[in-house]
Amino acid sequence: MTRCWLRTSRLARRPEAVRIHVTYTGGTIGMIDSPHGLVPGADLEGWLGTLLGESASGQDLGRKDVTLTALSPLIDSSNATPESWQLIIDDLRTTAAGPTPPDAFIVLHGTDTMAYTSAALSYALTDLSQPVVITGSQLPLGVVGSDAAPNVTGALRAAVSGRADGITLFFGHRLLAGNRATKTSSWAFRGFDSPSVAPLALTGAPWQWSEPAAGGRGWDGPARPYARHDVAVIDLVPGVTAARLEAMVTPQPEAVILRAFGVGNVPSDEPGLTNVVADLIEAGVAVVVTSQCHQAEVLLGHYETGDAIARAGAVGSRDMTLEAVYAKVQFLLSQGLRGAELAAWVGRSIAGELTESRG
Ligand code: ASP
Questions:
Q1: Which residues does the UniProt record annotate as the domain L-asparaginase N-terminal (predicted)?
Q2: Class of domain 231-347
Q3: Across the strands, what pairs with 169?
């Protein structure tokens, strides 16, 4: 992937306007048909200029001064990597440090891995003073009935509301905490949910806002850039053997995320299975246990079936989504943490991605 920006352009300029910077990364929102399926290629810049120009004259959205950076290459977010997260972070930081820093950022992104990116951004940008709202759409902007326009104008409205803080995700008339969100539908206009916390806002007349869930920012100071680390995400299934699990962690990854059952239970009667986990931990590989449940609080030790791997040193992911856990492990590895040191951070909030304790 080329580490450069395609172009930065000014879409609308108005005196005393609220300044918005849009980072366009790709995704269905700007795609067009090709003989091999949808690919980036729509005139997103022109469309956005018209949309925001019109919106900017509306009473609700006020005056806007909008700049746009289109990353190169524009990608289907299925091709995103931790390096792609870093490209977005670099654009936001460069723009924030520029001569006319924006009041808020909007990131246009494919929906497939949007929740991974929004979680990743939240860890790396705890010190960014402007809000960042990430959005995209299920249908391209050129399709009649597309959700592209309502999602972008909703993101804009959230961005200038003065109430959106940190990294949030706007989609299907709801504003969600960026590191609490997960994609729940490949087709519904309400394609995202935050299963463990309430939406931050629902659109309407007027919008209904709720208090953000408690969960402090625990990471101080600058973060090292994301680099791609070898993290294995493994789903346990009834009947999995120790030999199969062993094969799935060979060669040894830098960290393992085990998607277990319920509150973090593993088939502890399966001969040798717990030993595979114990051996990994002994070799300095952090093992994070998460749940296959859409909504879960992982509590290792609640059942005997989770206790054995907890005793071996595995840590539970509490109520984090898979996206939040995966991006967090990539973040911690990128900071140089390994093994027990990394595991110690899993249950601590970096940017409000988990509920630290339930009363
Ligand atoms: N494959 C697309 C992407 O994630 C899907 C979308 O944007 O809705 O880039």
A1: 19-205
A2: alpha beta
A3: 134, 176
Report the C-alpha gap between 141 and 102 in whole angstroms.
Answer: 25
pLDDT in tens, 233-276: 999 999 999 999 999 999 999 999 999 999 999 998 999 999 99
pTM score, whole prediction: 0.93
**Residue among 111, 114, 182 whose CB has most ligand 1 atoms within 8 A, to mutate:** 111
Mean pLDDT of 186-191: 97
| Catalytic residue flag (residue 168) | no
> What is the average pLDDT score of the chain?
91
Ligand-binding annotation for 81, yes or no, is: no
Q: Where are the domains of the chain?
A: 20-209, 231-347
Query: Does 112 carry a binding-site annotation?
Result: yes
Characterize the bridge pairing of strands 231-235 and 208-209.
unpaired
For atom 1 of ligand 1, the residue with the nearest CA is 76
In this chain, the answer to whether the domains covering 20-209 and 231-347 adopt an identical fold is yes
Give the span between the Cα atoms of 237 and 310, in whole angstroms.
Answer: 19
Task: Tell whether residue 94 is among the known ligand binding residues.
Answer: no
CATH architecture observed for domain 20-209: 3-Layer(aba) Sandwich (3.40)
How confident is the model at residue 111, as a pLDDT?
98
Residue 338 or 302, more confident: 338
* Helical spans, DSSP H, in 142-241: 148-159
